[in-house]
């Protein structure tokens, strides 16, 4: 069997007339994804925490896609009230949404609690996106063939969901919390696809991961670890414009199917051509996925109707 074919941004089909919402699109992988979609004609909504900083992202997108008129929406995924406000604005502004890319996230943060009392990484990376998707589900189902793509990490394979301490109230470790939140991303995406398919909807849910990309997500990496990893970085790290390809393919490739998990297919899983990969064992447990779903509905107060 030969090496997998390289999938590139140039293979993205025309996106004219489509509305795409990308969380965390002010920088990094989210920005590159939004730029690529706008370049192919999509009307892109940059859902970001800091709308002032997003002005620079809008300007850069217009530089590469002159006809693009991206919109900016304030969204703080760590705050459930902000999630509800953003969802209401999107539902009021658009009758239907073609594409939702749940990209925003935080990584390896010091222990912190949100205004809602949730552990910060679990709240931002999983609960915020769980609630946002549920609140936008009708708008997504209103558009035939709509897609929901949730961005995870290859580190989800090291994650473990402790249902007795889901909110890390008894024990916190920044690495453990991140891995758990990224495992939750994949579990959510796969369980959402199961429920959508069971309901007969043609909306599909996929997951993806970028491998290792040089973005602002690593700003909380401890200095000692950063120093130790610097000599190896060229072997594993890639530019954000490359890191976004797995999610972009999941979002736009006509051959992509609901329930797939896209990522780099190189030997380390951190770089290389992108395509369908195998999610970690924990993400494939249907009982655990159902239990996480129920807990997520309870914690956010957002109940899905199919």
Descriptive overview:
This protein is of the alpha/beta class. 40% of the residues lie in helices and 12% in strands. It contains 10 helices and 8 strands. The protein has helices at 28-39, 54-64, 80-93, 120-141, 174-199, 223-229, 233-236, 240-243, 245-252, 286-300; strands spanning 19-23, 43-48, 71-74, 99-102, 147-151, 204-208, 261-264, 274-277. An 8-stranded mixed beta sheet has the order 3-2-1-4-5-6-7-8, sandwiched between helices. Strand 4 (99-102), helix 4 and strand 5 form a beta-alpha-beta unit.
Compact summary:
This protein is of the alpha/beta class and 306 residues long. Helices cover 40% and strands 12% of the residues.
CATH homology superfamily: NAD(P)-binding Rossmann-like Domain
Residues in helix, %:
40-55%
Which blocks of ≥5 consecutive residues have pLDDT under 50?
A: none
Radius of gyration: 18 Å
The helix/strand order is EHEHEHEHEHEHHHHEEH
- CATH topology term: Rossmann fold
End-to-end gap? 41 Å
Globular, elongated, flat, extended or rod-shaped: what is the shape? globular
Task: Please state the second-level CATH architecture.
Answer: 3-Layer(aba) Sandwich
Summed over residues and divided by their number, the pLDDT gives a mean of 91
CATH top level label:
Alpha Beta
Number of helices: 10
User: What structural class do helix, strand and pairing data support?
Assistant: alpha/beta
Q: How much β-strand is present in the residues?
A: 5-15%
How many discrete domains? Answer: 1
Q: What is the topology, as strand order, of the major beta sheet?
A: 3-2-1-4-5-6-7-8
């Amino acid at each position: 069997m030969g090496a997998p074919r390289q999938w590139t941004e140039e293979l993205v089909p025309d996106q004219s007339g489509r509305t795409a919402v990308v969380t965390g699109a002010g920088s990094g992988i989210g920005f590159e994804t939004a730029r690529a979609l706008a370049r192919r004609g999509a009307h892109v909504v940059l859902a970001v925490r800091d709308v002032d900083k997003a002005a620079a992202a809008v300007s850069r997108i217009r530089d590469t896609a002159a006809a693009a008129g991206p919109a900016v929406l304030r969204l703080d995924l760590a705050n459930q009230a902000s999630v509800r406000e953003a969802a209401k604005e999107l539902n009021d502004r658009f009758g239907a949404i073609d594409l939702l890319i749940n990209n925003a996230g935080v990584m390896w943060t010091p222990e912190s609690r949100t205004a809602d009392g949730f552990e910060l990484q679990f709240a931002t990376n999983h609960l915020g996106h769980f609630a946002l998707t549920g609140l936008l589900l009708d708008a997504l189902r209103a558009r035939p063939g709509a897609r929901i793509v949730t961005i995870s990490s290859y580190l989800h394979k090291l994650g473990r969901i402790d249902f007795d301490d889901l909110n890390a109230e008894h024990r916190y470790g920044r690495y453990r919390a991140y891995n758990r939140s990224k495992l939750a991303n994949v579990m959510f995406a796969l369980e959402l696809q199961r429920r959508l398919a069971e309901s007969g909807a043609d909306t599909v849910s996929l997951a993806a991961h970028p491998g290792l990309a040089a973005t602002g997500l690593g700003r909380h990496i401890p200095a000692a670890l950063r120093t130790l990893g610097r000599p190896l970085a060229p072997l594993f790290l890639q530019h954000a414009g490359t890191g976004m390809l797995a999610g972009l393919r999941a979002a736009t490739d006509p051959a992509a199917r609901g329930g797939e998990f896209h990522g780099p297919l190189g030997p380390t899983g951190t770089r290389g051509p992108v395509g369908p990969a195998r999610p970690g064992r924990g993400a494939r447990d249907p009982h655990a996925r159902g239990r996480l779903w129920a807990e997520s509905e309870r914690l956010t107060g957002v109940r899905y109707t199919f």
